Amino acid sequence: MQRPVLAANWKMHHGPTDAREFLRTFLQYYPRHGDRQVLFFPSAISLPAVVEGLRDRSDIRVGVQNIHWEDKGAFTGEISAPMARDAGAHLALVGHSERRHVFGETDDETARKVAACGRAHLVPVLCVGETLAEREAGETEAVVLRQLRTGFSLVDAAQVAHAIVAYEPVWAIGTGRTATPADASAVHRAIREELKQLAPERHRAIPILYGGSVNRGNAASLLAATEVDGLLVGGASLDAEGWSAIVRA
Length: 249
Ligand code: PGA
Fold this sequence. Notes:
This protein has one domain: Alpha-Beta Barrel (TIM Barrel), CATH 3.20.20.70. It contains 11 helices and 8 strands. It has an 8-stranded parallel β-barrel, surrounded by 5 helices. α5 packs across α7. The chain starts with a strand and ends with a helix.
C-alpha cells in the first residue's frame, strides 16, 4: 500500500490570522513523518498564509478548494488554476459536493476543471458521491462512476494517473453520519475497477480517499478499510490538536 493521504478541507473557515495560529500549534504536534502525506485545502484568501507557514515543511502540500475552468478572463470573483499554482498550490479540489449541490456545478464543469488542473500542473482531487435519495434508490455505483468517467473525460490516462479521487457520500458530509468501513470499501472497489479502465497501467498510483464525518474516533478504522488510501476531512480538521491526532493515527 502507498502512503496514506490525510487531507484537511477547511471550507469557509480560518482566515489568514486563524490559519497562522492553527499552523503554529499543528506543527508543534506534528513533526515530519515520512510515511504519510498531509494536505491542506484552505480558502483561497488564506492560501498565502498557509504556504508561508509551511515554508520549512516540504512534506506537507497545499491546495485550493475550487478553480475556474478557464486560465484567465472576465470571470469576476473566480480564480484560475495557473493563479493557484503561482500562489503555491499543488492541488485543487474539483467537484466537491458543496460545489455540486450548493453552487450547481455540473459533471461537465468538473471535467473542464480537471483539464484546467492538467494544464497548470495542479493535482486534481476529483470528489464524487451520491445523495441519500440516490443511495436509497440503489444508484450509488451508477452515480459515482458517472461522476468519475465524466470528470476524467477531457484528460488522457497519464493525467488520470496523477489525480486523486475522493469518495464523499453527500449524506455523510457534515452530518455526523459516516459510511461504515465496509460501505466505503465497496464503493472504493468499484472506483478502482473504473480507474483500471481509465488508467490501465497506472491505476494503483491513484489514491482513493474517503470523506464524510471523519473524526478522531473513526479515522483509524476507515483508514484500515480495504481500498481506502486516505481521508478528506472537513469539520474535524479545523482544530489543530484534533487534526494532528488524526494525521498521526
Ligand atoms: P466533514 O466534511 O468531514 O465535515 O463531513 C468533509 C468534506 O466535505 O470534505
